[in-house]
Amino acid sequence: MPTPNDELAEELAQLQGALKPAEVAEYLEVHPATVYRLIASGQLRTIRIGSGRKRRTGLKVPQSAVVEYLRSSQPFKPGDGATGALRIPESVLNSTDTLSSATEVA
After folding, report:
1. Pick the CATH number of 8-74 from 1.10.1740, 1.10.10, 1.10.3470, 2.60.40
2. Structure confidence by residue, pLDDT tens digits, 2-46
3. Which ranges form a coiled coil (predicted)?
C-alpha cells in the first residue's frame, strides 16, 4: 500500500519534468491559447502550483501528459477537412449534368 511519502515523491518526480504551457505550445508548434484550451477542456493534464489567483504561472504540464495527449490525437489524413479545403463528393465530380447546366446559364 503506498504511503503519503510515496505519493508525494511521485508528484515531485512529475514536477521535475514539467513544462510551462508556453513551452508546450512551442514544442507542439501551436499558439499558447491553444494549450490553455486543451487544459480547460481536460485534454491536457496539469499540475497546479499555488492558488493561481493573480496569474496562471502556477500551471505545469508533466511531460507524460504531453505524451498521453499526442498518443490520443488522431493522425492527420489529407483531405479530412483540417486544411479548410472543401470536400466534393465523387458523384458531383463525376457528374457532367451539373457542368453543362452551369455553362448554359452563363
Report:
1. 1.10.10
2. 566 777 666 666 667 789 999 999 989 899 999 999 999 999 998
3. none
